[in-house]
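Notebook entry, structure prediction.
Reason for the run: the old model in the group folder had no record of what sequence produced it. Starting over properly, with the input documented here first.
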Amino acid sequence: MHDHPVHAAGGSFPVMTIDDPVPNERSAEDDELASNGEQVTARLEELPEIAISFVVEPKTAADAAKPLALNWLSSAVDMLYLAGNAIETGAQLDPRSKLAIETVRRHFHTDKRRRSIFELEAVRLVEANFRLMLRYLNMSDSIFQSADDETAAKSTRGYFGSGFTVAAYTYSMKAIFFTSDFPPIGPKCKAAVMIHQLAHFIDSRIRDIAGNSGPAYDRLDFDTALFNVHCYPNFAANATPPYLDERFGISKPNV
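New structure, fully documented this time:
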């Protein structure tokens, strides 16, 4: 099982309802009650989205976040296919092909290989992983599940300590669980977390190795990058127009 720590605090907010019947004749007490009701309504409207979103079922939030993750994964597959064809045919000077190869190398370091395989084979291995992730995301109804805070804390205790909860965690080739810490995070963070977990899902060897940025990430070789879970959401976002190298995830929970 693999999971991703969440730095935002977990918790839940009560669902509040206000009944304010309007009688034919209003007394001073009625007016005061109505005023209080209006004030509570105003306070509810002023609550940040992050607070209200705690009442959303985690799996429902994951289902709503799927379109962006699907777009990123589809873009990743397209770019990998283009990069592979450019390497195979030698057409690497075309601007689109050049961009594709540079982006693949930035995250998966296919030009730095320890094992004796050609770069084309390395690119095709990464492409196969993304195609598998895309396939399983399209089958998410049988994979995505909600986990309550108590279950999530128990399931991840061996990784993060007692009582710590996470946005999502995975049992490879079995299920991806989303917790109450998932609904409040931003849409790009959700997509990144989802792709992160899908990478864990398709292969238990894909794990947290070198973070998602910094010298350790930049020094990876292909054989290590292939199994560094952070390379997958980073590349998928970078492969999507406008092709910016913006790295999303729990480090940017509000994006």
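Summary: Residues 1-26, 32-47, 50-54 have pLDDT under 50 and may be disordered.
The old model has been moved to the deprecated folder.
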